[in-house]
Design goal:
112 residues; mainly alpha
Length: 112
């Protein structure tokens, strides 16, 4: 059914390579041709959409970060105006809001 090749004979210096291991110039040239053809097709048709999707994703992430920072600044201003608390408490609240905003951004990233 299957022909078993004894590689120990080949390693000892005797015998020829099995038929499937003998190099053929025609197969090598066709393999190189097919490889570069597929590489060219992927470069032309797939590279652009992939890069566009990555740039769009990067833009969306940056927009989300900017929105979170803006909301954080608004919350800090609101807390400072509404409460009239000492600066130390406002700073502590600011840090808490910043951590909360960053954690919500991380959650959005993991959901996407």
């Amino acid at each position: 059914m299957f022909q078993v090749f004894d590689f120990t004979v080949l390693a000892a210096g005797g015998g020829d390579l099995p038929p499937f291991m003998t190099p053929h110039l025609q197969v090598l040239l066709w393999s190189i041709f097919v490889f570069f053809t597929l590489l060219g097709l992927l470069w032309k048709f797939a590279w652009g959409p992939i890069m566009h999707a990555l740039e769009e994703r990067e833009h969306n992430i940056q927009k989300t970060i900017d929105d979170a920072e803006k909301k954080n600044a608004e919350a800090i201003a609101k807390v400072a105006l509404d409460t009239g608390r000492p600066k130390r408490e406002v700073y502590r609240l600011r840090l808490g809001l910043k951590v909360q905003a960053l954690s919500s951004v991380k959650e959005e990233k993991t959901q996407k």
